[in-house]
Amino acid sequence: MAPLPRTWHQQAAPVEPRIIVFSWNLLADALAGCGGFVHAPPGSLEWERADGRGRKQRILAELRAAIGGDQQPDIICLQEVDHFADHLQPALKALGYSGCFEPKRPGRDGLCLFVRDDRWSIDAVEILRYSDVSGRPHGQLALIARLVGRQGLGSLRVATTHLKAKAVPASEALRLRQCRQLKEHLQALQVQDPLPTLLAGDFNAPPDSPEILSLPGGSLGLQSVEPTPGCSVEAWTTWKVRAAGEVQRVIDYIWFGPGLAWLGGLGLPAGSDLPSTGLPCWEYPSDHLHLCHAFGLVSP
Question: pLDDT (tens digit, 9 = 90+) per residue, 10-60?
Fold first, then answer.
């Protein structure tokens, strides 16, 4: 049950201060058993196991490895979280992080954001609930936080989101609307309170989709860290096998705006390192890879 091997790729000379951002769709416990992962090894989707190999234990182990490694995250953005208060919050608090959580409606899973206490504090939190053309809210949302840095780090705006799933026209139209609402909202916040901005999450859309192509440009000036460093034309952030077939694509992103420069990040595992079962598996507890990237504060 060795973890999937991944290598840090340095894109530019180190710039201080560095801000390291970690983002991961955990695969909610409530969704793991009904996700249609037909080749998932027996027992690998269980949340807790007496032998210590449950998904809870493996998710926390993955987070502890990131926090204890050479590239310790300043900011951790998580999607599909349904064990915030009972598992994630106490575990990360013990490791020096404070966080906030907001559930989807309906549904018990949601978004959370943690910051490293010795470097940042959460000054304010805002929730954007997406709506359809009639104004009725969707289940999806964005969690937006204003962070105040310690040790002269200044301030940041960080947002995380998880957009509508499924590769069908109705969902694609909803995602495009959600992307536009998010971009407009962040642009309005930027007018009121200009700050370097980071955006991370599961967008459920590939890089060449109208949804993703709608995010760059405009006054917000977002750029995506995509493709991830060290990847090939077969880039992927999710690779799973369901009854309907095999899915291998990039749908998870980290975006950054003016005032920030991308310095490098965590590369992808080789396809040959992934078990034939796809994700999730014993070696990896989610159907999404986590992303981890470093940014430098620069003059906008």
Answer: 876 777 789 999 999 999 999 998 889 999 999 999 999 999 999 999 999
Calculate Rg over the CA atoms of the chain.
18
- Give the chain's residues under pLDDT 70: 1-2, 12, 226-234, 300
**Domain boundaries defined on the chain:** 16-297
- In 3D space, the residue among 73, 84, 145 whose CA is nearest the CA of residue 116 turns out to be 73
Architecture of 16-297 per CATH? 4-Layer Sandwich (3.60)
* Range list of H helices, the chain: 29-32, 55-67, 89-93, 169-192, 210-213
DSSP-assigned letters across all residues of 192-240: HS---EEEEEE--S-TTSHHHHTSSBTTTTBEE--SPTT--TT--SEEE
What are φ and ψ of residue 57, in 5° steps? -65, -40
136 close to 183: Cβ distance less than 8 angstroms = no
pTM tops 0.90, yes or no: yes
| DSSP string of 275-293, one letter each residue | -TTBSSBTTBSSSB--EEE
Do residues 78 and 50 lie in contact, with contact meaning Cβ atoms separated by under 8 Å? Answer: no
State the amino acid at position 83 in one-letter form. H
Q: Please, are residues 294 and 208 in contact by the beta-carbon 8 Å criterion?
A: no
SS3 content of the chain, % helix, strand, coil (to 5): 20, 35, 45
Most distant CA atoms of the chain, gap in Å:
52
Alpha-carbon gap, residue 165 to 176, rounded angstroms: 12
At residue 106, the pLDDT reads 75
